[in-house]
Amino acid sequence: MIEPQSRLHQAWIGLGSNIGDRQDYLLSALKLLHQRQGVQVVCTSSIYETAPVGYLDQSAFLNMAAQLTTNLDPEHLLRTMLEVERELGRTREIRWGPRTIDLDLIMYDNMQVEYESEHLILPHPRMLERAFVLLPLAECLKQAGHPDMRQIEQHLDHLDMTEGIEKWKTFSWPDELGHTES
Ligand SMILES: Nc1ncnc2c1ncn2[C@@H]1O[C@H](COP(=O)(O)OP(=O)(O)OP(=O)(O)O)[C@@H](O)[C@H]1O
Ligand SMILES: Nc1nc2c(c(=O)[nH]1)N=C(CO)CN2
Protein backbone atom coordinates (compact mmCIF):
# COMPACT_ATOMS: atom_id res chain seq x y z
CA MET A 1 0.00 0.00 0.00
CA ILE A 2 2.67 2.54 0.92
CA GLU A 3 4.36 3.92 -2.19
CA PRO A 4 7.86 5.35 -2.39
CA GLN A 5 7.55 8.90 -1.11
CA SER A 6 8.42 10.68 -4.33
CA ARG A 7 5.26 12.74 -4.37
CA LEU A 8 3.31 14.90 -2.01
CA HIS A 9 0.43 13.40 -0.07
CA GLN A 10 -2.48 14.93 1.77
CA ALA A 11 -2.87 14.00 5.42
CA TRP A 12 -5.88 14.82 7.56
CA ILE A 13 -5.29 15.15 11.27
CA GLY A 14 -7.45 15.72 14.34
CA LEU A 15 -6.22 17.89 17.22
CA GLY A 16 -7.58 18.02 20.77
CA SER A 17 -6.68 19.70 24.04
CA ASN A 18 -8.35 19.92 27.42
CA ILE A 19 -5.60 21.10 29.79
CA GLY A 20 -4.21 24.62 30.30
CA ASP A 21 -4.42 27.19 27.52
CA ARG A 22 -6.19 24.88 25.10
CA GLN A 23 -6.16 27.20 22.10
CA ASP A 24 -2.48 27.92 22.58
CA TYR A 25 -1.72 24.18 22.56
CA LEU A 26 -3.63 23.73 19.30
CA LEU A 27 -1.87 26.66 17.65
CA SER A 28 1.54 25.61 18.99
CA ALA A 29 1.05 22.09 17.62
CA LEU A 30 0.18 23.47 14.18
CA LYS A 31 3.22 25.76 14.23
CA LEU A 32 5.57 22.97 15.32
CA LEU A 33 4.23 20.62 12.64
CA HIS A 34 4.55 23.32 10.00
CA GLN A 35 8.21 23.86 10.97
CA ARG A 36 9.02 20.18 10.48
CA GLN A 37 10.86 18.98 7.40
CA GLY A 38 8.43 17.54 4.88
CA VAL A 39 5.24 18.81 6.54
CA GLN A 40 3.10 21.82 5.67
CA VAL A 41 -0.16 22.83 7.28
CA VAL A 42 -2.32 24.01 4.41
CA CYS A 43 -5.78 24.37 5.88
CA THR A 44 -7.57 24.22 9.21
CA SER A 45 -11.14 23.91 10.46
CA SER A 46 -12.80 26.12 13.03
CA ILE A 47 -12.19 25.27 16.67
CA TYR A 48 -15.02 23.37 18.41
CA GLU A 49 -15.64 23.01 22.12
CA THR A 50 -16.72 19.44 22.81
CA ALA A 51 -17.93 17.47 25.82
CA PRO A 52 -15.54 14.64 26.76
CA VAL A 53 -16.23 11.25 25.22
CA GLY A 54 -15.08 7.90 26.62
CA TYR A 55 -13.67 9.07 29.94
CA LEU A 56 -16.24 11.56 31.19
CA ASP A 57 -14.70 12.94 34.40
CA GLN A 58 -12.58 15.60 32.71
CA SER A 59 -12.87 19.11 31.30
CA ALA A 60 -14.29 20.04 27.92
CA PHE A 61 -11.99 19.74 24.90
CA LEU A 62 -11.16 22.08 22.12
CA ASN A 63 -11.02 20.07 18.91
CA MET A 64 -10.13 20.97 15.37
CA ALA A 65 -8.88 19.34 12.17
CA ALA A 66 -6.14 20.26 9.74
CA GLN A 67 -5.03 19.31 6.27
CA LEU A 68 -1.32 18.72 5.80
CA THR A 69 0.72 18.16 2.69
CA THR A 70 3.65 15.89 3.28
CA ASN A 71 6.27 13.78 1.58
CA LEU A 72 6.60 11.65 4.72
CA ASP A 73 5.12 8.18 4.67
CA PRO A 74 2.37 7.55 7.27
CA GLU A 75 4.70 5.95 9.86
CA HIS A 76 7.16 8.87 9.67
CA LEU A 77 4.36 11.39 9.81
CA LEU A 78 2.91 9.72 12.92
CA ARG A 79 6.38 9.71 14.52
CA THR A 80 6.65 13.44 13.81
CA MET A 81 3.22 14.02 15.34
CA LEU A 82 4.16 12.05 18.48
CA GLU A 83 7.34 14.13 18.81
CA VAL A 84 5.30 17.33 18.65
CA GLU A 85 2.94 15.93 21.31
CA ARG A 86 5.96 15.25 23.53
CA GLU A 87 7.37 18.74 22.93
CA LEU A 88 4.07 20.12 24.21
CA GLY A 89 4.21 18.10 27.41
CA ARG A 90 1.82 15.31 26.47
CA THR A 91 1.80 12.44 28.96
CA ARG A 92 -0.30 9.26 28.95
CA GLU A 93 -1.87 8.31 32.28
CA ILE A 94 -5.55 7.56 31.75
CA ARG A 95 -6.88 6.01 28.55
CA TRP A 96 -8.93 8.72 26.82
CA GLY A 97 -8.04 10.99 29.75
CA PRO A 98 -6.95 14.66 29.97
CA ARG A 99 -4.18 15.85 27.68
CA THR A 100 -2.35 19.06 26.77
CA ILE A 101 -2.44 18.00 23.13
CA ASP A 102 -3.60 14.99 21.17
CA LEU A 103 -2.72 14.57 17.50
CA ASP A 104 -4.45 11.79 15.58
CA LEU A 105 -3.72 10.82 11.99
CA ILE A 106 -7.25 10.50 10.66
CA MET A 107 -6.63 9.64 7.04
CA TYR A 108 -3.80 9.66 4.56
CA ASP A 109 -4.93 10.95 1.16
CA ASN A 110 -8.37 9.33 1.36
CA MET A 111 -10.61 6.78 3.09
CA GLN A 112 -9.49 4.04 0.70
CA VAL A 113 -5.90 4.16 1.94
CA GLU A 114 -5.87 1.41 4.57
CA TYR A 115 -2.82 0.51 6.59
CA GLU A 116 -2.14 -1.37 9.79
CA SER A 117 1.04 -1.83 11.79
CA GLU A 118 1.99 -2.13 15.44
CA HIS A 119 1.98 1.69 15.70
CA LEU A 120 -0.57 2.93 13.23
CA ILE A 121 -4.01 2.14 11.86
CA LEU A 122 -5.43 4.05 8.89
CA PRO A 123 -7.98 5.41 8.53
CA HIS A 124 -8.14 6.15 12.29
CA PRO A 125 -10.13 3.21 13.73
CA ARG A 126 -12.52 5.31 15.85
CA MET A 127 -13.02 8.28 13.55
CA LEU A 128 -16.49 7.33 12.31
CA GLU A 129 -17.96 7.13 15.79
CA ARG A 130 -16.60 10.52 16.90
CA ALA A 131 -18.48 13.68 16.02
CA PHE A 132 -15.62 15.71 17.55
CA VAL A 133 -13.47 14.29 14.74
CA LEU A 134 -16.00 14.23 11.88
CA LEU A 135 -17.42 17.72 12.25
CA PRO A 136 -14.11 19.62 11.94
CA LEU A 137 -12.86 17.08 9.37
CA ALA A 138 -15.93 17.72 7.19
CA GLU A 139 -15.13 21.43 7.28
CA CYS A 140 -11.58 20.82 6.03
CA LEU A 141 -12.71 18.34 3.36
CA LYS A 142 -15.25 20.85 2.12
CA GLN A 143 -12.65 23.60 1.81
CA ALA A 144 -10.46 21.19 -0.18
CA GLY A 145 -13.31 19.87 -2.35
CA HIS A 146 -12.31 16.36 -1.25
CA PRO A 147 -14.27 13.45 -2.80
CA ASP A 148 -14.82 11.78 0.62
CA MET A 149 -16.71 14.76 1.99
CA ARG A 150 -20.16 13.32 1.25
CA GLN A 151 -19.30 10.03 2.92
CA ILE A 152 -18.11 11.84 6.06
CA GLU A 153 -21.23 14.02 6.08
CA GLN A 154 -23.41 10.92 5.82
CA HIS A 155 -21.67 9.41 8.85
CA LEU A 156 -22.22 12.68 10.70
CA ASP A 157 -25.93 12.49 9.87
CA HIS A 158 -26.03 9.00 11.38
CA LEU A 159 -24.48 10.13 14.65
CA ASP A 160 -26.72 12.08 16.99
CA MET A 161 -23.88 14.48 16.99
CA THR A 162 -24.58 18.08 17.66
CA GLU A 163 -25.19 17.56 21.38
CA GLY A 164 -22.14 18.59 23.38
CA ILE A 165 -20.42 20.24 20.41
CA GLU A 166 -20.29 23.97 19.75
CA LYS A 167 -18.33 26.04 17.32
CA TRP A 168 -15.98 27.96 19.65
CA LYS A 169 -13.96 30.08 17.26
CA THR A 170 -13.39 30.47 13.55
CA PHE A 171 -9.74 29.92 12.83
CA SER A 172 -8.02 31.01 9.70
CA TRP A 173 -4.71 29.42 8.82
CA PRO A 174 -2.14 30.89 8.10
CA ASP A 175 -3.50 34.24 9.38
CA GLU A 176 -3.21 32.94 12.95
CA LEU A 177 0.56 32.80 12.53
CA GLY A 178 0.72 36.59 12.42
CA HIS A 179 3.13 38.41 10.19
CA THR A 180 6.39 37.44 11.88
CA GLU A 181 6.41 33.81 10.75
CA SER A 182 7.09 32.51 7.26
N1 LIG B 1 -4.36 6.75 13.15
C1 LIG B 1 -3.68 6.94 14.32
N2 LIG B 1 -3.41 8.17 14.78
C2 LIG B 1 -2.73 8.35 15.95
N3 LIG B 1 -2.28 7.34 16.72
C3 LIG B 1 -2.52 6.08 16.30
C4 LIG B 1 -3.23 5.82 15.09
N4 LIG B 1 -3.33 4.48 14.92
C5 LIG B 1 -2.70 3.92 15.97
N5 LIG B 1 -2.20 4.86 16.80
C6 LIG B 1 -1.45 4.57 18.02
O1 LIG B 1 -2.23 4.90 19.15
C7 LIG B 1 -1.33 5.18 20.20
C8 LIG B 1 -2.04 5.84 21.37
O2 LIG B 1 -2.49 7.11 20.96
P1 LIG B 1 -3.14 8.08 22.01
O3 LIG B 1 -2.51 7.91 23.36
O4 LIG B 1 -3.10 9.46 21.39
O5 LIG B 1 -4.61 7.51 22.08
P2 LIG B 1 -5.86 8.31 22.54
O6 LIG B 1 -5.88 9.60 21.77
O7 LIG B 1 -5.89 8.41 24.03
O8 LIG B 1 -7.06 7.39 22.09
P3 LIG B 1 -7.61 7.17 20.64
O9 LIG B 1 -6.58 6.31 19.95
O10 LIG B 1 -8.90 6.46 20.87
O11 LIG B 1 -7.77 8.51 19.98
C9 LIG B 1 -0.26 6.01 19.52
O12 LIG B 1 0.96 5.97 20.21
C10 LIG B 1 -0.17 5.37 18.15
O13 LIG B 1 0.93 4.47 18.06
N1 LIG C 1 -14.55 15.61 23.34
C1 LIG C 1 -13.48 14.84 23.21
N2 LIG C 1 -13.43 13.67 23.87
C2 LIG C 1 -12.35 12.87 23.72
C3 LIG C 1 -11.26 13.27 22.93
C4 LIG C 1 -11.34 14.51 22.26
O1 LIG C 1 -10.39 14.93 21.53
N3 LIG C 1 -12.46 15.26 22.42
N4 LIG C 1 -10.21 12.44 22.77
C5 LIG C 1 -10.20 11.26 23.31
C6 LIG C 1 -9.07 10.33 23.03
O2 LIG C 1 -8.58 10.47 21.77
C7 LIG C 1 -11.23 10.79 24.22
N5 LIG C 1 -12.31 11.69 24.34
TrEMBL record:
Pfam families: HPPK (PF01288). It is an enzyme of class 2 (transferase). The keyword Transport does not apply. Its EC number is 2.7.6.3. One of its GO terms (molecular function) is 2-amino-4-hydroxy-6-hydroxymethyldihydropteridine diphosphokinase activity. The keyword Nucleotide-binding applies. It catalyses: 6-hydroxymethyl-7,8-dihydropterin + ATP = (7,8-dihydropterin-6-yl)methyl diphosphate + AMP + H(+). Residues 95-106 form the 7,8-dihydro-6-hydroxymethylpterin-pyrophosphokinase domain. InterPro entries: Hppk, Hppk_sf. This is 2-amino-4-hydroxy-6-hydroxymethyldihydropteridine diphosphokinase. It comes from Marinicrinis lubricantis. The gene is folK.
